[in-house]
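Q: I'm writing up a methods section and want to include an example of the input and output format. Could you take the sequence below and give the corresponding predicted C-alpha cells, formatted cleanly so I can copy it straight into the document?
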Amino acid sequence: MKLSKQMWLVVAIILVGTAAAGLILKTDQPAMEADGHSEHAAEVAGKDEHADHEGEHTAGADTAMAPEHGENGHDHEKDYLPTLQKIQKEDANEHEHAAMVTENVKGPHGGKLFKDGDYAVEVTIFEQDQPPQFRLYTYLNGKILAAKESAIQLKVSRLGREAQNLKLSPENDYLTSKAIVEEPHSFKVAIDANHAGKVYEFGYEQVEARVKLTVEQLKHNAIEVLTAAPANIQTNLRLIGEIQLNADNAVQVLPRVGGVVNSVAANVGDTVKKGQTLAIIASPTLVENRGDLAAARQRLSLAKTTLVREETLWREKISAEQDYLAAKNDVQLAEIELARQQQKLVSMDVAASGNGYALKSPINGVVTRKQMVSGQVIELSQILFEVADLNTVWAEISIPTKDLGVVKVGQSVTVGATAFAQTEAGKITYIAPL
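A: Here is the clean output for your methods example:
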C-alpha cells in the first residue's frame, strides 16, 4: 500500500510539473517575442542616436571650418576626418550613386569638398593679405595628401568670356594657381584631378552679383540682351565748315570770240539743260571768219572749173600737161583752205551763217553766276556764266591740329545746317596737306 501511495505521489508531481511547465512556456513566449522587439527597437533607436551623433559631428565639423584659412586649419583635421569617414560609412543603398559630395559640404579649410571613392578634393579661394587665388587640398581615405601627389587643372568659365584654363602647382600642403581670381566670383569651375594614375572629375557653379530677369520682365521693361563683342570706339568731332560747289561738277562758261551781247536768256538760279542757249553774242571776228569761209568756198568752186577746162584741153592735145597738173593742185589747195575755215567755226561752236552765235550750257545744272548784260562788250578771258550740278556739293571743314590724328579719308560725316533742321550724310574724300 505504501508503495502504491508513493507511486501516485510521483505521478502527481510529474503531472503538476508538466502543467507548470506548460504554463511557463505559454507565459515566456510572448515575453521572448517582446524581448526580441525590444532589442530591435533598441537597435533602431541606437541607429537613430548614432545618426544624431553623426549629425552633431557634422555640425561640429562645419563649425570648425569657419575660421580663417591658414595653418590653424590643420588643428581641426582630427575632429573633421573621423566625421568624413562616418559619412562615407552610411547605408550603401542610400548613397551608392553619390559619387560627389555636394558643395554644401565643407572641408577642414572652409572650402567646397568633393569626393569620388576614397579620394577627395577641397576647393578654396585664399585672399588674406593678397589678391584672391585658388588653393586646393587633396585627401585620401580622410587623410590629407601631399600636394605633389596630385596633378590638377581647373577650367573657369564666366558669362561672355573665353574659358580660362589654370594649371595648379604644389606649394606647402596645397596646390595653387598664381592667376588672380577676378571679382565678381561668379563662374563655373571644372576640376580635372589625376592621382595614382586615376582621373577624377568634379565641378560646381558659383553665382555672385548676378541679376536674373524673366522673359516677361525683359519685355515689360523694354530690355534687349545682346552679346558683347569687340568694336571700334567712335570719336565724334563737332566742327565748323562751309558748303562749297562740287568743283568736279561746276563749269565756267566763257565766250569763244569777243563781241557784243545781243540778248541774255538765263539768270542766276535758273535750271538749264545741256545745250540750252544762255545768251546771243554778235562778234565782228565771227563775221570775218564767216566771210573767209564763203571766200574759200568760192575759190574751191573756181579751181574745180579751171581743172575741168585744163583737163579737156590736155586730153585734146591743145594745152600742155603742166597746165593740167597746176589746175589740179589749185583745187587741192582750195579744199584745204575751205576745211580750215570750217574748222575755225566748229571750234567756236557756232553756226556757219548769221551775224552772232549762241552761248550754250555745257552741262545740266543750275546757273550759279552771271556776269553779263545786253549790250556789254566781252572778251575771250571773261567768265560769263557758271553752271553747277547741285546734286552733290562739298563741305570744306577746318580741323584743329590736335584732331588731325583721328580724321581719315573714307570716314563718315554728318553735315547739319545751323539755320534750319536738316542734315546730310557724306564721307571724307580729301584732306589737305597743309
